Amino acid sequence: MNKLYRKTLLLLLTVLMSAAIFPLASCSRIEHPGIEPSNTANGVSVAAQEVTDESKSEDGTEPPESEVPGESTNAPTDLPTEAVTESASLSQTDVPTEPVQTDKPTDEPTDEPTDEPTEEPTEEPTATPVPEPTAALTATPKPTAAPTATPKPTAAPTATLKPTAAPTATPKPTAEPTPTPVPTGNSLSERFRDIVLPINVRYDYFAIPEEILGLMTPGDREMYRRVAVAFFSGDNYVDIPSGMGSFPNLWRVIDMYFPVFFIDVTDTTIQTSGSRITWQYTTSNYEQHLQQIRRFENRVDFLLSPVVQSDTTIMKVLSLFKDFTSRLIYNDSHVIPGDRTSPHVYRHSVTAMMDNIGVCYGFARGYNFLLCQLGIDSLTVHGLRRGDNAVHEWTVFKWNNEWRYADPSWCRGGKKLTFFGFTIRSREADGYPEADVSVLEGKSLRASQYFDVSGEFFKPLYSGEIAYNVHYVNYRLNRSTGKIEFINASNQITKTFNTANGSVQ
User: Is the pLDDT of residue 400 over 90?
Assistant: First the structure.
């Protein structure tokens, strides 16, 4: 009996559980196998169907969702008829059928989590702004584009290489040659008319008088041409043609007629080795080299500025002489303080013209060069003083087809003409014998054999008539009258010299 009671109680409990679950299943529209929604009001049918489900579960099929884990399902399938009838009556009297027919369980939140969590989480990941990070990443290439713009500074240094390429290319622009500029109109440079220079120059560096060209050796003339072209091209060497012969006067002639060479070259760097002459520039590139040349020519412009084109030839000579000598400062120390050049720098005419400083060499050659640029034949000679053999150098210029002496060194200050237009006899009186006065290099070429300096047109200037008997402190040139006016300490004219006829008043 107890056994039958337990089975009946178990069956009743199963019916109650089925009555509570199936309405929920019907509300959620989930169809369980073997249960018709229309039969949920009949407790007997539900119970019978549940027994059938239990038997399926014991056979190994999947248990129904209403089965509670751990609950025993060992109820026999062949229940007695009275047990079924009793359980049916108990279910009809004790178990209300309202839970089976009501729809209230649909309001419980049991089914809501099955819909909401499955839809919202799946949409939120898709709604997450994944493109925003990628958009941010596509915006980040802008900084990477800026680094690509940074190569422009590296391209600028390649542009800075142009200035360095220009000096290398410009030294030899012989592809577009410019005819040799010979601005003089007195045919001084006929032997150099065929020379083609790589740059344009404003002055005639080949204005060598024919008398000097005739005394130069073939080697002197050829090497002079080569050095001039190499210098203007920026080259620091020239080759010596085989079998050409010697060139003893080359560097003296260069200092006399091509003084611009020493604007950028010191004489101690000049070397002759084998078949080549080399030298070194003081500048570091060709552009600076050209600037030095322009600087020299600008200075020559300034030194020639006192000369008026309308002046007579002799007034040009005198105007240049007065202005040039008024600037000269004698210094035989051979060293310029702070200058990187070597000794003997003062021996060159370029120093006298550029810095107004030097000795007789530079003064005489500088004045000589300036005269040649005015179209006046000029040269220098040097003599040995009697007694101590001291060397002195002065200028020789041609006027009215006669050669005249002029000594810029002994007329420094620009206030006297005691040593202007004088003759060889006057020079001998100063202690320089005619036999010891030479032209060009060395003593082999006696000047008196090639140049007659005996005209006395300017004798009143260097003789006692004016030079020693008239007490003057300065002189001035009157261009309108063509006269030299000698001024005393009271700024009064004491004497005049007429450059047209040589008369004194």
Answer: yes
